[in-house]
Amino acid sequence: MASGxxxxxxxxxxxxxxxxxxxxxxxxxxxxxxxxSGTKKLKVPEGSNAILVKNLYLSCDPYMRPRMRQPIPxxxxxxxxxxPGSPITGYGVAKVLDSGHPNFKKGDLVWGLTGWEEYSLITxxxxxxxxxxxxxxxxxxxxxxxxxxxxxxxxxxxxxxxKKGEHVFIxxxxxxxxxxxGQFAKLLGCYVVGSAGSKEKVDLLKNKFGFNEAFNYKExxxxxxxxxxxxxxxxxxxxxxxxGKMLDAVLLNMRAxxxxxxxxxxxxxxxxxxxxxxxxxxxxxxxxxxxxxxVFEYYHLYPKFLELVLPHxxxxxxxxxxxxAEGLESAPAALIxxxxxxxxxxxxxxxxxx
Length: 354
What we know:
This protein is of the alpha/beta class. The chain is built from 8 helices and 18 strands.
């Protein structure tokens, strides 16, 4: 539907995914709803340096769960909470329809933070990247060539300082970030093991992504023993996506001077009271460095990242698995599915293909 609004500016219907209210405990689809009655003017307001985009692909990412929580006064969070009654926001790929910004013009393809809606007016453009390489699937810019790809790159190369032959363990290894960390480690000549939550995902790690070994953590009553089995000589690098019991077991299996990049802790996001970690003293005895990081601190390295990764994609040395949900109305279920492990690979929502 399109109509000529005031002053001849075209106005279109604009479906949106709205957060109903702050969420405690495990999120449900009903915590979000689809608003089909909104409209959007297809013009940037006069004098504004915003850009107006048509959203093509949206990214479902675990960090979005903490954004659904009610902010605690005085408690610093690294990302702004969503506003109940407003559209959810997240990373996506979009096409520019109108621009008041000198760096972007009509027809440009971009990736960065946008709204969970058909059309968005983006006013903060600092972390918006223009897409110059279109000979790869556009959806890759929600994952492999977007924020998760940069997360894998920064966490592995910048935080872990990896060396050939080192022993690398990755939790949630078939997810958007983990699958790429494993392939980076293999390209460097490391021994790589990943954990995941189903037989299908374990097979994917070994057969598609080339991990040396992989295991289903749900079938391991004793994670410490499982890690001992796969790393008899210990772990040099742990890429942390899970937290909780897995982190505790890893700490007991680290080698001296090991490095842990803390990317996220998905096991903790839906708990009202986070689990404690018991084996932190091993950091002292084994002189382990454990460091958290935020991907946007490393966005200045994006050109360097593309230089490394694009040739590998074209040569088939890096592969990527996506789980694609069709239509904006499927977005709430796709997001919730991350926390039950329903997705296989990077969870993407297609809003429009062009």
